[in-house]
Amino acid sequence: MQRAQEDADEDTRSSGTILGSLAAAFPRTLPIMAGFLVLGVSYGFLMTSRGFPVIYPLAMSALIYAGSMEFVTVDLLMSTFNPWGALMLTLMVNARHLFYGLAMLPVFRGTGRKKPYLIFGMCDETFALESADPHPAGTDKGWYLFFVTLLNQIYWVGGATLGAVLGNLANFDTRGLDFVLTAMFLVLFLEQWRQAEARVPALIGLLASLACLLVFGPDRFIIPSMAVILAVFILLDFRSQREAS
């Protein structure tokens, strides 16, 4: 009887810990929910406007789960088959996740079987939340990180699916809808420009992109420009390390 009571008490504490972690994660993800639903619906509309069935945005948002790359994939699916170009473009667009992953390895330590999903579900917004406060008071770190990651993915997949369903039902001109990603990045750039103390990285990005646009043209400038930006940053970092030593 005592053993059974101890097991029941342990289950109650475990359930309370899980629910407490969910209760802590949900309000922190509400701002992300607002943004993901709007962008996700736009993405779903865009996919259906290009003739793709609902299953495409649902599966891509769940399995790719990289917002900017999903928008880019729309054009990749509509263009000539070029796996090497798609691979390089994907690597360049999402290369920042390599650094996210390295930074989050200490945070994910001790999360057990949740760790593979935490790695898969990492995105910019999830990284920002989890790196800022990976273990709020009164929560289990593993369950808190799990729920932050899961809720954010649910918002994105739900928004994309909703947009695809509404896109099939709605009857209006969707021309120009693919500009939503450009608008999003423009707003993010302007906000970072306004807040940043050092604007040299932004200027490097602008000048490198403009130069590659002039040299390679509008259809082939993305990969070369990102390669140039990465090379310049590496050289600057190497120079700063030599000066420090």
Automatic annotation (TrEMBL):
This is AzlC family ABC transporter permease. Belongs to the AzlC family. It comes from the Bacteria. It is found in: Cell membrane. The lineage of its organism: Bacteria, Bacillati, Actinomycetota, Actinomycetes, Bifidobacteriales. It is a multi-pass membrane protein. Its main location: membrane. InterPro entries: Brnchd-chn_aa_trnsp_permease. It holds the Pfam family AzlC. The chain crosses the membrane at residues 29-46, 58-78, 84-108, 143-170, 176-193, 200-216, 222-238. Keywords: Cell membrane, Membrane, Transmembrane, Transmembrane helix, Transport.
